[in-house]
Design goal:
heterodimer; A: Ubiquitin-like (UB roll); DNA polymerase, domain 1; five-stranded mixed sheet; 5 strands; 33% helix; B: alpha+beta; Aldehyde Oxidoreductase, domain 3; Aldehyde Oxidoreductase, domain 4; 23 helices; 29% helix
Chain lengths: 178, 824
């Protein structure tokens, strides 16, 4: 067993771990941070994505001992106070999730993407999240959500927050139905 | 829609139905506060890991688990022999013919293994890691048997047998003949008089549902009661079946499906591991958990599709279709699971598609091989049927020298002809194929793309362009119970709902239709808000726990809204009827003088009077003052059994670029117009269409479960089994027409499977349209660059990705024998 000290979502944990323990298993099984999930065993799906010292990592490819002395942020720690992160809000607003299993990883990857590129095109979003698999949405509304969040976050940086708008363009046929 | 307006009496902008409500479910999903089964931790819980067969077909000659038993942290090890007397057989609920052969399906192999990945021992340990470590210590000896992998070989004379106690590898021979049932003319006669007969052999490759949340089960024994949490689509069916398999009395077994991370048919199953968890928890008296790895999931959770289709179409020179003949070989895998044999049989009724065939005959052989069983996967039988008919219509158009759209128009059911009874005996409910097609053509920019295609042809551009058409329908809303009975299905097709009016006016809706990601909580809230006139936020939808939702048939076959939502609406009607009597009493008016609108009863012609249904809920909770002779409750329960299927339809168009130098294909544009009846929540509908498209396109372009010639799955991880990423898929331009389904009070037709059913042939037709002038007649799915390149430069259909005769794909489809000959 190896002692590690990790700060996760704003709290400090000192634990003994087996050297082979993956970060995702440490988070889920020792800390009870079950918001972060496991979707595969080959680092393809990205469901387990968290931030390690501010960078998105697949926590199934990081050993817990590698996180010793680091700051980890999971999906459970991205909201500040009672306010959801703009990316979380946008996933809801743009219907960027269905079953929601990929969503924690998808949100964490998207936040990282927007830090690197605050105004991505559709194609840049698609390439930026290609390490994260979603089986439900066909990705179109995820792309829409990430770009929507990007707009809100850019507005926020200028001191002007663009309110989330009801996207009637998402469903032009609503008008026709009555 | 008319039905809805009459029902709610609250037309206009305040209506919830049709509103793009953001989902209630999302709050917990975007914050990581979910209840996935694997999140569950119980005091004293033990962890299971399954020792699985590394060989496809063998007798088990020795099992030595001594070392595993002694490993640190291991509490117990169970072999097949240990559980043989109590494991029973996993159920198959759909004996499609009276003489169907079912070899039985042990949850854990005892004497023989029949596919790679079959359970042969189970390790029980204090931690998951300890259990997994001990798997390596189990020492099992196998005596190999001949491996049966190819369906066409499996049905040949003298073939090796998957189950040597059976006479052959054929489970059943299912026939539907329209001439014999009286829904059409004589098929042989239709073909003998035809000017043109086109025959093709299509291969529906094996697919893997690949839901994102791996399967997981937790069992907690409490005395002689058991609670099973499972990542399942079907908690209600699972409860009945698990009770019958294990002998745990049904009333002592509670099944809970908490948050479930996708299913797509892949969690419509009674899994071996669910049964093993129950048996082992019963033996040990301790809670146990099993969660699969992704590799286990791809290898052992049931697969989908895997059919060889021989299709003949007959027509006259003018393009009037005269007859359709279909013969299938359908790969069952090694065993029959819950509805394994029923999947191709369900498809039988959809091969005629939207066309007016005068004659039709369908035959299918269910075939055993040494592979993991197949079963439901998004569409289940209908994608295969739609692919076959939409591909062969294109082939017929080529043969006749007709425009593929003109050929379809000439033969499809006109809008004025609904309801229309097809040659397969189905009564299509409503629709308008012409309007949907016109809208789709506009969405795609059809004329411009045809012009560009012409230019590229003329300039001999290395990148050619093609446009693929799929005009489809499907049968949804499974299903009328009597029809299911006539098809020998093991259950009905009704759905149950109840509504509980709480004292504070809040509303609990209990549904038997269990979601696994679709958004029932939101859509059901919209239904109830409209029906009862209560705020959307005041409605809570409960589901997925047999102790809370005691009656239900769960979610599959695009049935949730059509059948389950209808039950909710019917229950709301009953609540209103019960509340009306109490309102009349409290308002001192005649029931006949009361009108109900916007959640309020008022006396006709007396403005200002009235009593809200939420107030009545409180009044009847107190029960101080209510009419004689009635019960003090306005809660209600309803069961809805549909009288007919519903038939969504649509036109899907794909424009595809094919690089003739590299074989790389790229979807340039994808447009679809679907008619799914009344749309309760357009965001959810759009999302379902997108997701379906992604899976249908993935069948055409990316996904294939491949076995090597020893029966090993070589696509056993997400490295090899290509679930598409965002960068692999195009933007979708989607739209809707709305023709309400007459068969249910909502008017909904079902949307979960539409995109998946319609898109696959549109994509393949598009690729062929791009390169047909280069002599290409067919390219096998998925259209990998290698296959496309080979089809263009070497002829044929692109060939195998698997060793010869291991994946049911050795015969070149351009040499397709007619259904009347060939390998059958």
């Amino acid at each position: 067993m190896t002692p590690i000290t990790v700060r996760v979502d704003g709290a400090t944990y000192a634990d003994d771990v087996e050297p082979r323990t993956l970060l995702v298993h440490y988070l889920r099984e020792q800390l009870g941070k079950v918001g972060t999930v496991v979707g595969c065993d080959t680092s393809n799906c990205g469901a387990c994505t968290v931030h390690l010292d501010g960078e998105a990592v697949k926590s199934c490819t990081v050993l817990a001992v590698q996180a010793d002395g680091c700051e980890v942020t999971t999906i459970e720690g991205v909201a500040s106070g009672g306010d959801l992160h703009p990316v979380q809000k946008a996933f809801n607003e743009m219907h960027g999730l269905q079953c929601g299993y990929c969503t924690p990883g998808m949100i964490m990857a998207s936040i990282d993407l927007l830090e690197d590129n605050p105004d991505p095109s559709d194609d840049e979003v698609r390439e930026g999240i290609e390490g994260n698999l979603c089986r439900c949405t066909g990705y179109q509304n995820i792309v829409r959500a990430v770009r929507h969040a990007a707009a809100e976050m850019r507005g926020g940086a200028d001191g002007h927050v663009v309110p989330a708008q009801v996207d009637t363009a998402a469903a032009p046929h609503v008008v026709g139905q009555a | 829609m008319t039905a809805v307006e009459e029902r709610t009496g609250t037309p206009g902008p305040d209506k919830e139905i049709g509103k793009a409500r953001r989902r209630k479910e999302d709050a917990r999903l975007i914050t990581g506060r979910t209840t996935w089964t694997d999140n569950m931790v119980l005091p004293g819980m033990l962890h299971l890991a399954v020792v699985r067969s590394p060989v496809a077909h063998a007798r088990i000659t020795n099992v030595d688990v001594t070392a595993a038993r002694e490993a640190p942290g291991v509490v117990a090890v169970f072999t097949g022999r240990d559980l043989a007397d109590e494991q029973g057989s996993l159920p198959c609920a759909w004996p499609v013919t009276p003489d169907m052969v079912n070899p039985g399906h042990p949850s854990i192999a005892v004497d023989q293994v029949n596919h790679v990945g079959e359970a042969v021992a189970v390790i029980v340990a204090r931690s998951k890691a300890a259990a997994q470590d001990a798997v390596e210590l189990a020492d099992i000896d196998y005596e190999p048997l001949p491996v049966v992998l190819d369906m066409e070989q499996a049905v040949a004379e003298g073939a090796d047998l998957v189950h040597d106690h059976l006479e052959s590898n054929t489970s059943y021979h299912f026939v539907f003949d329209a001439g014999e049932t009286g829904t059409g003319g004589d098929t042989e006669q239709a073909f003998s008089g035809a000017d043109v007969v086109v025959s093709r052999r299509f291969v529906q490759q094996r697919l893997i549902p690949a839901f994102m949340e791996p399967r997981s089960a937790v069992v907690q024994p409490q005395g002689d009661n058991y609670t099973l949490w499972s990542s399942t689509q079907i908690p209600h069916i699972l409860r009945v079946m698990a009770a019958m398999v294990t002998g745990i009395p049904e009333h002592k077994l509670r099944v809970i499906a908490p948050d479930v991370g996708g299913g797509f048919g892949g969690k419509l199953q009674v899994n071996p591991e669910e049964i093993l968890c129950l048996l082992i928890a019963r033996r040990l008296g301790k809670p146990v958990k099993w969660t699969e790895t992704r590799s286990e999931s791809l290898m052992t959770a049931h697969h989908g599709r895997d059919q060889i289709q021989y299709v003949d179409v007959a027509a006259d020179r003018e393009g009037n279709i005269l007859g359709l003949r279909v013969r299938l070989l359908a790969d069952m895998g090694a065993y029959l699971r819950l509805i394994t044999p029923g999947v191709p049989a369900l498809g039988a009724f959809m091969y005629p598609g939207i066309y007016k065939f005068p004659a039709y005959r369908f035959e299918c052989d269910g075939v055993f091989t040494n592979k993991v069983p197949t079963d439901a996967y998004r569409g289940a039988g209908r994608p295969e049927a739609t692919f076959a008919i939409e591909r062969i219509m294109d082939e017929l158009a080529v043969e006749l020298g007709m425009d593929p759209l003109e050929l379809r128009r000439k033969n499809w059911i006109d809008a004025a002809e609904f309801p229309f009874t097809t040659v397969a005996g189905l009564a299509y409910d409503s629709g308008d194929y012409e309007t949907a097609t016109q809208q789709a053509l506009e969405l795609l920019g059809y004329d411009e793309l045809r012009e560009e295609q012409r230019r590229r042809r003329e300039s001999n551009d290395p990148v050619q362009l093609g446009i693929g058409i799929s005009t489809f329908t499907e049968m949804c809303g499974l299903a009328p119970s009597r029809v299911l009975g006539s098809l020998a299905f093991g259950a009905g097709g009704w759905e149950s709902a109840s509504i509980r009016m709480l004292p504070t006016g809040k509303v609990e809706v209990v549904t038997g239709s269990t979601p696994h990601g679709q958004g029932h909580e939101t859509a059901w809230s919209q239904l109830v808000a409209d029906s009862l006139g209560v705020p959307f936020e005041d409605v809570e939808v409960l589901h997925g726990d047999t102790a809370i939702s005691s009656r239900g048939l769960d979610t599959y076959g695009s049935r949730s809204l059509v059948v389950g939502g209808s039950a909710v609406v019917k229950a709301a009607d009953k609540v209103i009827a019960k509340a009306r009597r109490i309102a009349a009493h409290l308002l001192e008016a005649s029931e006949d003088d009361l009108e109900f609108s916007g959640g309020k009863f008022s006396v006709r012609g007396t403005p200002g009077t009235g009593l809200g249904i939420q107030e009545i809920a409180l009044a009847i909770f107190a029960a101080h003052d209510y009419p004689e002779g009635i019960e003090p409750s306005i809660d209600a329960e309803a069961t809805f059994d549909p009288e007919n299927f519903s038939f969504p339809h649509g036109t899907h168009l794909c424009a595809m670029e094919v690089d003739t130098e590299t074989g790389f294909v790229k979807i340039r544009k994808y447009a679809s117009v679907d008619d799914v009846g009344t749309i309760v929540n357009p965001l959810i509908v759009e999302g379902q269409v997108h997701g379906g498209l992604a899976q249908g396109i993935a069948q055409a372009l990316y996904e294939e479960a491949i076995y090597d010639d020893d029966g090993n799955l070589t696509t056993g991880t997400f490295v090899d089994y290509l679930v598409p990423a965002a960068s692999d898929l195009p933007h979708f331009d989607t739209g809707n027409t709305v023709h309400a389904a007459p068969g249910n009070p909502i008017g909904a037709k079902g949307v979960g499977e539409a995109g998946c059913i319609a898109s696959t042939p549109a994509v393949v037709n598009a690729a062929l349209d791009a390169v047909r002038h280069l002599g290409v007649q067919d390219i096998r799915m998925p259209l990998t660059p290698e296959r496309v390149w080979r089809a263009i430069h070497q002829g044929g259909d692109g060939g195998d990705r698997a060793p010869a005769r291991s994946n049911a794909q050795a015969v070149d489809s351009s040499d397709a024998p007619s259904t009347s000959g060939g390998a059958l």
